[in-house]
Amino acid sequence: MIALIQRVSQASVSVAGKQISSIEQGLLILLGVTKADTQNDVERLAKRVASYRIFADSDDKMNLSLQDINGAALVVSQFTLAADTAKGRRPSFSSAAPPEQAEPLYLAFVEALQQQGVAVQTGQFAADMAVSLVNDGPVTFTLQS
Predict the structure, then answer these.
(1) Taking the domains of the chain in order of start, what are their residue ranges?
(2) Marked catalytic residue, from 34, 78, 116, 121
(3) Of 19, 38, 39, 80, which is the active-site residue?
(4) Which ranges belong to the motif Gly-cisPro motif, important for rejection of L-amino acids (predicted)?
């Protein structure tokens, strides 16, 4: 499981021109699910994301987590994160989980983040989404389970 996390001052998702979710300060999380992922990966990654210290403290050091600042998360499914780009000029998605495996793990990740005390908004699984964000910093990290 791969999470591309971006520290944002705001982010939103639209489908077919209609905004379906938005957050203020927090994290935009693009989540890629692979065939090898399990519920253990979900739990481990959700705990790590919620407690990952990438928000500034009073000394402007990255010492605060999403939980510490009571920030929100916007979780968007992004199967392209599971792409193999090592060879050629076209990505391979052979390691990406099929939708029937990926969607339950995506929803489990959302629930696991909520259990960590994080307010969570979501995109729409498998939809063609327009994601807007103001990346604060910019600060972007990739975390893997």
Answers:
(1) 2-134
(2) 78
(3) 80
(4) 137-138
Catalytic (active site) residue 55: no
Class of domain 2-134: alpha beta
pLDDT of residue 124: 97
Measuring CA to CA, which residue among 47, 66, 36, 45 is closest to residue 136?
Answer: 66
114 included as an active-site residue: no
Model pLDDT for residues 111-134, shown as the tens digit of each residue: 999 999 999 999 999 999 999 999
Would you call 110 helix, strand, or coil by DSSP?
helix
With beta carbons less than 8 A apart as the criterion, state whether 78 and 32 touch: yes
* Beta partners for residue 130, in sequence order: 14
DSSP state of 17: T
Catalytic residue among 79, 109, 116, 121: 79
Could you tell me how far CA 42 lies from the centroid of its own chain? 12
